[in-house]
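*** Query protein ***
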Amino acid sequence: MSRKFNLFSRRDMLKISAGAGAGLALGNWSVFAQNSQSSGLIQRAIPSSGERLPLVGIGTARRYNVGTSAEERAPLKEVLKRLPELGGKLIDTAPSYGTAETVVGDLVRDIGNRDRLFIATKVRKQDLADAKKEIEQSFEILHTDKIDLIQVHNLVGLDDVLPVLREMKAAGRIRYVGVSTSSGRQYADFIKMMEIEDLDFIQVNYSMTSRTAAERILPLARDRGMAVLVNLPYSRGRVFQRAGDRAIPDWAADYADTWGQFFLKYILANPAVTCVIPGTAKIKYLEDNLGAARGPMPDAAIQKRMEQFYDALPS
């Protein structure tokens, strides 16, 4: 389905109405418009450090798995350039995402904005020697001396790899350590891991169509002081397919201007979520997604109403 896009949300338009006269009088409308978009992104703290991250970042699985041609990479380069300009920061990638990690590393180097980004990647090797090799390759591929976050991907090699990551954190090569999953089949083992391991981050799938993480994993992360990255927030597009071409409900207008924001705000209504990472390969989607990091968040009652509304839609 197509999304409904507005350059400015209803909330932004109130700010513009208040300040447009001065901006226009100074002939700085373009600057004013850019500042209106980049200011006011809500941030949440990483519990282990207090460092704050904007609520919305970008994921790179599938969409950044492209070749080396300038034509293929051009829209992705524009997204990575604009992300910090619009107030965003976090980029999540992995060696197992095809060429995505290479594309991110090359484009960020070319843009020259590494210092404005929080880059998260992963390691997914059962054998310890292979895992160490993959980690070192990530430093080379990302063209960086320090990686903000490395996560053990889908629990693979967990017992052997976590101690290595902790050593690298102590040495200052990486800033945070985490573990990821995107499969409900791993939840039981993931919860057991969370109960005994001290982690800076977890990453888990959570969306309108996949709510199980909210039952135990998200509350446990909050209790254990772990930041949470949320992957697959759009369930690979299934939520948009079900919404179809209908408009978002009127009662949601205070929270969202588009279906994309509706679905992201549903996730972000959970205070345990630190940052949601929708796959983002086009500027219009970047601008829309970042809109979910502005304005009021749904309370528990509105979040429940969102669920009920979505569940009542024809499947």
User: Anything to note?
Assistant: The longest helix spans residues 10-25. The first strand starts at residue 43 and ends at 45. DSSP finds twelve helices and ten strands in the chain. The radius of gyration is 20 Å.
